[in-house]
Amino acid sequence: xxxxxxxxxxxxxxxxxxxxxxxxxxxxxxxxxxxxxxxxxxxxxxxxxxxxxxxxxxxxxxxxxxxxxxxxxxxxxxxxxxxxxxxxxxxxxxxxxxxxxxxxxxxxxxxxxxxxxxxxxxxxxxxxxxxxxxxxxxxxxxxxxxxxxxxxxxxxxxxxxxxxxxxxxxxxxxxxxxxxxxxxxxxxxxxxxxxxxxxxxxxxxxxxxxxxxxxxxxxxxxxxxxxxxxxxxxxxxxxxxxxxxxxxxxxxxxxxxxxxxxxxxxxxxxxxxxxxxxxxxxxxxxxxxxxxxxxxxxxxxxxxxxxxxxxxxxxxxxxxxxxxxxxxxxxxxxxxxxxxxxxxxxxxxxx
Length: 351
Ligand code: ADP
Ligand code: MG
Known about the structure:
The protein is an alpha+beta fold and 351 residues long.
């Protein structure tokens, strides 16, 4: 429904977006993720025509954004809601009037407005707060008002730019679930910008990882988590053990002085690779039982699991386990072939 092809954008001599190509399907939550300055907001602003791109094309339901007149653009924008980190609520109006604002501008009949606003108040669980001043509402409630205000106009697409960025961690987690639930109820497309990888992974159907204006990877959360295409994505998406290795042949990789079976194929013989093993995929076994052996250097309880650092001859591994081991103990580490992920060395690392 939204097609972005080879889009580039410069601010003066600063290249902010470079050769961005993305397809966004109807009804998906599409996550855009990357560090501050990666170009996420700029991309969002290009999609709804607030910013002009310098090259490539963006089509929304078949219409090329750059080719539209102001009037046509306004029509397209009517179908796109937008929510920002600072909710931009109208402080002098109560909750009801904030949500009704857009409909009143459109001069919709009073009874229709009332019907729609009431439905939204119910959707975001604020029915009993209609008459409250928005300034008397908590951060989470204000966020819900902002969502209701955007959805009341019945957009096809909702663009969300770090919508939960101003909330504390606990509230953010709650709102993530709530937003996802709302999205499923209304069935519209969400384009969801965040710098928080965990938020993107839990929220999105599909994710694009951006770095300095360029796409690093597009895929489902599990694709990106389990098969990061390079070291940047692996590091950005989650804590990982990234070890230098050599791909001996198909399904055979050497690292830490040992040869491991894996499931990856198609690398050149003896190609230098990065081997990625997630902390939760390493299993602590009796010393001597695993291919790797090391000493527990530290242990920290993380709420659900223990995080241990295990020093082997060549590499110190991060291991997550629900079982605690004592510091100083010699243990074995094992990993199944499926959990060994092989990546091409990034160009940077080779240079
Ligand atoms: P993100 O949302 O990923 O943090 P932005 O899209 O806001 O990144 O910004 C990307 C880059 O473009 C940054 O280096 C930022 O300073 C620059 N930038 C954004 N807007 C403008 C502007 N209007 N004029 C000049 N530079 C800008
Ligand atoms: Mg931004």
